[in-house]
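Notes from the pairing session

We agreed to fold both candidates in a single pass and log them together. This is the raw record for the first candidate, unedited. Please don't reformat it; downstream parsing expects exactly this layout.

Candidate A
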Amino acid sequence: MVHRLAEVLNVEGHAAEVLATRGTGAATELARKMVNTVDAIFACGGDGTVHEVVQGLVCETREPAAALGIVPLGSANAFARHLGLSLDPAIAVLQQARGQACLLPVGKVRHSGGIRYFAVMAGAGPDGALVQSLSSTHKSLMGRSAYYLHAARLLLTYQFDPFEVEWSTAPAGTLSRRKTVSVMAARIGNLGGLFSGLTSRHASIYDSTLKLHILSAPAWLSLPLWFVTGWLYLARLNPFSHCVEASWFACRSLGRGACHAQVDGEWLGELPFEASVVPNALRILLPAK
């Protein structure tokens, strides 16, 4: 499949080479090695693969060199869908080969393990617990249904302890703090499938701020209500849900149970962590209209 896509690029007049990854983190290392020697690097896979390649392409000190391209071969493909890419890999490659590159802001997370960048979302609470419990084997074998089954199981059996979130409101810069059971910072307006109503439909990868979704306790009530009001386009009527525009936020444990965090659907670890936005840090191929 991937070699056939390389041939599609060759026909378009581009010299394409296929490089295989050998495990977690391999895509990041390959991107870092090639970033200054090629025009574009295509991430062939799902949102997790895109996340790894992004780590090797983001540049904070100067204009990024190589552009990110996406070949949607994953189970969710939320980022590819947001860009308007076809889920047919060959068509998606052509869309980008005939499109143009654009500089975009990117999310940045600082945590105990270092720095991670995110293109789609970052969060803590139920979404962190979900990706921590969901292995790549399950995703590859079951597709998007794996997310649904694990989400239902966690909702019925998991004890989501509250933690603290602090954020800087954009553009005023006012600091606020709240006890919460879930925090999600989304950079796209639709996560797809059963999760399609959980984020602000106004969120965009072009934004220099984060749409921060905060849920109040109790989790057994606020979480189901979050899904239902989202599906019905009535999120503004949910008294447990708050959406704020933030330039920065931080999540800290209150010392009760373990609270997991995630970035772009990949497990980050346990709290604490903080997140912000870096302007013009990622060059990406946008599809031809």
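Candidate B (folded immediately after A)
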Amino acid sequence: MTAVWTRKQREYLDKATHRWNIKCGATRSGKTYLDYYAIPRRMRRVAGLDGLTIFLGNTKGTLQRNVIEPMQKIWGAELVGDIRSDNTANIFGERVHCLGADNKKHVDRLRGAGAKYIYGDEIVSWEKEVFEMAKSRLDKPYSKFDGTCNPGAPTHWLKTFIDESGADIYYQQYRIYDNDFLDPEIMTKMEREHAGVFHTRYILGEWCLAEGLVYPMFDAAIHVVPPEARAYEKYWISVDYGHRNATAMLLWGLCGDVYHCVTEYYHSGRDSNQQKTVSQYYAELEKLAGDRKIESVVIDPSASPLIDEIRARGRFIVRKAKNDVVPGISDCCTALSNSLVKFSSTCKNAVREIGLYSWDDKAADDAPIKEDDHCMDAFRYITHTLGWASAKPKSLYT
């Protein structure tokens, strides 16, 4: 089977002969697509030799979606099997261990086993202990590692390994512009969808600190609108629950292709010196909803008391929020950049928070400052959980 390669991809095929071979850079730059062809070539070279073949991804599910299924479309399900319940797959005649690297417990079963080949997807998202274990498994003279990732902070442990370990590493860095086959219109849309730190990382492919405002693309002249009557098609509520910390509830309505934060409820037990019970918060939720049909209440997954109360009352469908902070913030950036979300001027706390919400430059990893962020958490929960960033605004896509 033949394929046409970009200059960067040809360079990798020619030069990635080291013990560690890592591609890092922009999304949709051709990094992972190349691997669908590079993996079988690498596996053939060590076929029959002693040692395990291991595929590691952020989770087993992302490994199936990002690597296994695309390879099946190219090579067929007979050569590339699905990941089975025992976390193995039959791939090009080899038994391959396919594991999630988000938790070191997932790979503890490989402790003591040597590996002839390891493939790593989304390495920056791994637990460092998993990477250290992978290093210890590459114990054959012919052992090799191929891996790919988007860049993170320059203080990330993987960047330190690449720059300072002295290991036998071939490293490539990709920009989105290195993909000669990406439709220019799609490239323009992706440039528009990524702002701030995410533009630097996912478009330019550079390692950079998350610093300054989390949402530098927020513009009150664009994103804050008067509370006028609109023909909302659907409604949702997002909730960040706190006992002494503030509780924020945001009512959202869809009008055309824009999700409006219509109104808010906000109460801080610490600031007001008045604690509220779970039942009282549920009453505020009912009041916020009014007589509207609410599609679902998207809520902080750790808010068990309020979740139980809402379910016991039986009116609302509860969805526990996806609580991945940085991917959630990335989705919110995309939604703001594409004007998919707007805030009523009556949502004083949400508007105040979004203008001040900043990265914590003292944190070891990417993290926003945990102050005055309750509406921002509620904003992130619903945008990330319901996939609003993947919507296609008419103003950009038609």
